[in-house]
Specification:
Layout: H1 10-26, E1 49-50, H2 59-62, E2 68-73, H3 78-92, E3 97-102, H4 106-116, E4 122-126, H5 130-135, E5 142-146, E6 152-157, H6 162-178
Parallel strand pairs: 2-3, 3-4
Antiparallel strand pairs: 1-4, 2-5, 5-6
Amino acid sequence: MAKISPLMAVPGVVFAGFVGLALVGMFREDPDSLPSAREGQPAPPVVLEEFPGKELFSDETLRDGTVKLVNYWASWCAPCRAEHPKLEALSADGTPIYGVNYKDQLANATAFLEELGDPYTAIGRDEKGRMAIDWGLYGVPETYVIDGNGTIVLRWAGPITQQVIDKTLRPAMERAAGN
């Protein structure tokens, strides 16, 4: 009888490992979500430039006792344009939304809001993207649910859709209200 080398088992073990990783990936709660190291932590400092003609928000605003959204957006961002009607609807329903205009030219950002409407309770500009780095921004659009103490409850990377509002944002806002 021929001796079987232990090395012959290596391909099977490697294959089983890949299958295990694939199964874990398939059964994640939301396979499209990106992890956030900031969830459960205080929101990083708000360091924004003024958006002329608009109210600016600050660290104190994020810790005023109310649940709110912080939305990073830019006029050059097509998904930002696509999500904008959903932000308008949330704002009309009474959800406070604080806007961070990301790496944008002021004239273009102003034209964007004039054309599509302004859902923001207050807004500031992160022209160089420094605040975005501290917040762990992957790209725009990106929306954060902030509880009344200024803690990040959820980060949503990508455009807001009705499904995202119903299945992700509203439940996170309810959790935030309970904090």
